[in-house]
Amino acid sequence: MRPQYYQLATRFIPARHQAALLLEYAHSRELESDALLRGTHLFESDILAPETYISPADYLRLLANIQTALAAPDTSFMLGQLLLPGHYGNLSHALLHACNLRQAITILSTYQATLSPLLAPHLLLHDETAVLHWTNSCVTPGLRSFVVEMMMAAVVGMSRWLTGERLPWEFRFNRTRPPHIEQYAVHLGTRFRFDDYLDAMSLPASWLDRPWPRGSAMAVSAALAAVPETEKNRSLLADLYEFLTDHVRVAPSLEQASTAFGVSPATFKRHLAAHGTHFQAEIDLVRAHAVLRLIHTCGYSNEQIAAWLGFHDTNNFRRSFKRWTGLTPSVLRARLLESGT
Q1: Alpha helices in 38-164 (DSSP H)
Q2: Which of 22, 236, 250, 262 could bridge to 1 as Cys pair (CB 3.0-4.6 Å)?
Q3: Which fold has domain 5-234?
């Protein structure tokens, strides 16, 4: 059975973490607490109380409220710069003393329930490039772009502060080009593109293991030893993404997946529906991402990919890939070649 996972309505996020940060930022922008807390059933005193926990749905409501109330194109980026290393006790201490970028990203990925409860980070290596891409944990479609901007700004801000220099990040966004393009240049950098297939940020892999000035292996080890195992929990969607990635070549059935997650197929379907998705959509996403890796990293042909994924017919693979992405494999290859990735 898979480890415990959280869902959209699970109350596990200490309000004194992200919610308190949002409250502090709202006050700095002269935004009344009532505007931030509208629709959450929370009061300012609740957020400051150590026994108050909020759900990802509550967190999303707070973000939606602050986005609407401020209506400023830099809000997501400004919030992101405050998130990491953050004020999360021992986890923040571990990030502050991370020995290098690889260790910081590993901490972020391992303890995403606390550090990134809405989006799941995944570190991949493509030849000499390190790619950090983000998949859904508990984000609703209307706020996905906002949260992607926020979390990318969080990683950029943390790495800049802890290294003392601006790292050569490049950015890809699975969205259309926004009107506030100048904010991307100001807060992230000038190397970005839109209408992509992933929300991802990348840089030369050599940056992963460069020593950081504040790095202390002993401090990191001591801090992480004091972190409860429950903070390693993942969201349902992040855990399912990992499960399907591990079994991408055999495409597990709904029944097999629900058994692995310790629930009935009907319950599993209800849980996914509560997140606005369904089992086949999650399989399609994972298989599309696998094809991207096989084309980009391995240079596989359609025939090789079809065989690797267990398709008996290459034409069937082409049709399936177009259903997953809206593109044919040949168009994808042309775009990758054009973009130089």
Answers
A1: 44-48, 56-70, 75-83, 90-96, 101-110, 112-115, 141-163
A2: 262
A3: H-NOX domain (3.90.1520)
C-alpha count within 13 angstroms, C-beta hemisphere, residue 336: 18
Q: Do domains 5-234 and 247-339 have the same CATH topology?
A: no
- Domain spans of the chain, in order of start: 5-234, 247-339
What is the pLDDT tens value at each position of the chain, 341 positions in all? 566 799 999 999 999 999 999 999 999 999 999 999 999 989 999 998 999 999 999 999 999 999 999 989 999 999 999 999 999 999 999 999 999 999 999 999 999 999 999 999 999 988 799 999 999 999 999 999 999 999 999 999 999 999 999 999 999 999 999 988 999 999 999 999 998 888 999 999 999 999 999 999 999 999 999 999 989 999 999 999 999 999 999 889 999 999 999 999 999 999 999 999 999 999 999 999 999 888 877 788 899 999 999 888 899 999 998 888 888 888 877 777 665 55
Token pair belonging to 253: 């059935």
CATH superfamily name and code, 247-339: Homeodomain-like (1.10.10.60)
Residue in the structure block whose two tokens are 């699975």:
174
